[in-house]
């Protein structure tokens, strides 16, 4: 990796994301890979996207699968994120699976999506897989986050009022006046 590529990667890493494990099953075994490049694409039809390194075994498995699962990891599932990233310090006891064997669900995940392949796109050194969501479940809890090479968790304000006193909050800030700005003419 060149110095410029490393610098770009570090800069992109400043964007916090959730942590998922993308899973496939072939009847005899379950395969999974830790992925932070996951996003919603469309609600109608319901589409999501994951990006996988084209050199990885998981990329080949996803290409050949008839279904895949996306497990949004919980804040307490750091060990699973490391396991499926190939970076576990040792064995991770008790990996529990649930649901459809072709799109396995990790027990304890905060959300799960079962997808069927929709489209595949060239993404340079990655392959972009778009899946149509055929089943989903939000199970609650706090998600595991990834930022600047570190796994962590979201910390909620102790009083539950993140916007209290903020002039930029939804009730008082720019979002509240946005409707009044539309159609005013002039250039942005």
Structure keywords:
3-stranded antiparallel β-sheet, Pnp Oxidase, Chain A, 17% helix, 12 strands, alpha+beta, 188 residues
What is the topological layout?
Elements: H1 3-12, E1 17-18, E2 20-25, E3 30-35, E4 38-43, E5 46-53, H2 57-63, E6 68-72, H3 78-84, E7 97-98, E8 105-106, E9 111-123, E10 126-138, E11 144-147, E12 150-153, H4 174-181
Antiparallel strand pairs: 1-11, 2-3, 2-6, 4-5, 5-10, 6-9, 7-8, 9-10, 11-12
Give structural notes.
This protein is α+β, with helices and mostly antiparallel strands and 188 residues long. The chain has one domain: Electron Transport, Fmn-binding Protein, Chain A (Pnp Oxidase, Chain A), CATH 2.30.110. Helix content is 17%, strand content 38%. The strands form 3 sheets. It has a 7-stranded antiparallel sheet. A 3-stranded antiparallel sheet has the order 1-11-12, with no helix packed on it. Strands 7-8 form a two-stranded antiparallel ribbon. Residues 176-188 have low confidence and may be disordered.
Counted beta strands: 12
In helices, the fraction of residues equals 10-25%
Uncertain runs are 176-188
Distance between the termini: 39 Å
Strand percentage lies at 35-45%
The CATH architecture can be named as Roll
Radius of gyration: 19 Å
H/E element order: HEEEEEHEHEEEEEEH
Determine the structural class based on helices, strands and strand pairing: alpha+beta
Assigned CATH class: Mainly Beta
Strand order of the largest sheet: 3-2-6-9-10-5-4
Shape: globular
- Overall pLDDT, averaged? 81
Number of helices: 4
- How many individual domains? 1
- Which fold name is given in CATH as the topology? Pnp Oxidase, Chain A
What's the story with the biggest beta sheet? 7 strands, antiparallel
- The CATH homology group name: Electron Transport, Fmn-binding Protein, Chain A
């Amino acid at each position: 990796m060149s110095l410029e590529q490393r610098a770009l990667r570090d800069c992109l890493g400043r964007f916090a994301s959730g942590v998922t494990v993308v899973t496939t099953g072939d009847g005899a075994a379950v395969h999974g890979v830790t992925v932070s490049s996951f996003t919603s694409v469309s609600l109608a039809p319901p589409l999501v996207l994951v990006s996988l390194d084209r050199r990885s075994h998981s990329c080949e498995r996803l290409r050949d699968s008839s279904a895949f699962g996306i497990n949004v990891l919980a804040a307490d599932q750091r060990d699973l994120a490391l396991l499926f990233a190939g970076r576990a310090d040792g064995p991770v006891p008790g990996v529990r699976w649930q649901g459809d064997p072709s799109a396995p669900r990790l027990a304890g995940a905060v959300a799960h999506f079962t997808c069927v392949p929709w489209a595949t796109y060239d993404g340079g050194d990655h392959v972009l897989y778009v899946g149509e969501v055929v089943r989903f479940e939000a199970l609650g809890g706090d998600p595991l986050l990834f930022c600047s090479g570190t796994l962590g968790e979201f910390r909620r304000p102790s009083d539950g009022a993140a916007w209290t006193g903020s002039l930029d909050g939804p009730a008082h800030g720019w979002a509240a006046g946005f409707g009044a700005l539309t159609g005013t003419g002039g250039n942005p």
